[in-house]
Amino acid sequence: MPSIDTSLTRRSLLLGAAAATAALSTTTAFADDALPPLGLPKGDTVLTVSGKITRHNVGNTAVFDMASIEALGLDSFTTLTPWTKRVKFEGVYLDKFLRYLGASGTKLVCTALNDYGCEIPLDMIAQDKPLMATRINGQFMPIDHFGPLFVIFDFDRHPEWQSNLIYNRCPWQLQTMQAV
To answer: Which domain of life does this protein belong to (predicted)?
Structure first.
């Protein structure tokens, strides 16, 4: 009976397992979800995302129109803010949006149309689930009323967030984000 080289068999099995593991580790968090691919926006660009992201559609950035943001699925909550009465905000949870882009790093640098800038720690986004709102009470937000995008926290759910630190992490008229 011929002898079998068991070290070669083990090595082949290990290499095959390593290749399968590597293939699985490159799968994005949303690979099994019914989220749309990141195509080019058909409407006016309302948001440009750069930095440590793995999905791009224009060079090293990801650009979005309102339809492509809302195509990720709308989430909502109703809350009272320092700037509004109790209203219903609708949009995409920021952690879901950043997972879709494959974002990494330690913080998200946000810039508004009026050049206001802020930084939001990525671990805070994952834990506290702020919304990148596209609508207030079912209506798109015009530029002169927080629009087109407004990062907002659910202050009713967590009264401890009612502080200047968190208020300053709520940019409205959001125009760009950079994962760093």
So the answer is: Bacteria
